[in-house]
Amino acid sequence: VVTDAQQDNELRDIEKGVPEKIIIEGERAVIRYSVKERTRAPFFLQKGAAGWMFDFKTMAEVIRMNHRNKWHFCQRDHHYMFGFNDWYFDKNGFPHSRVNR
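Above: the chain sequence. Below: its structure as tokens.
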């Protein structure tokens, strides 16, 4: 259960950051921040009859935060990997840019 206060705090944090990319593929979308902003996890959205909606189920299943509040994937076989084709992930699931490799 997520409280209204938690949602308000999350919205304020989201408003502080500027997404690096919004990638849409069919009925799915990824909103992601720079790979350097590891405390800002990506968002997954799915388009439904009411419009774009967060896919909280998938985000909860595949995104984890470590003790430093930095995100990583605990699994990478999901429908939103199209949004990360220009990144690679280390053995622990942390993202890295292919450009700086």
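The chain has a mean pLDDT of 92.
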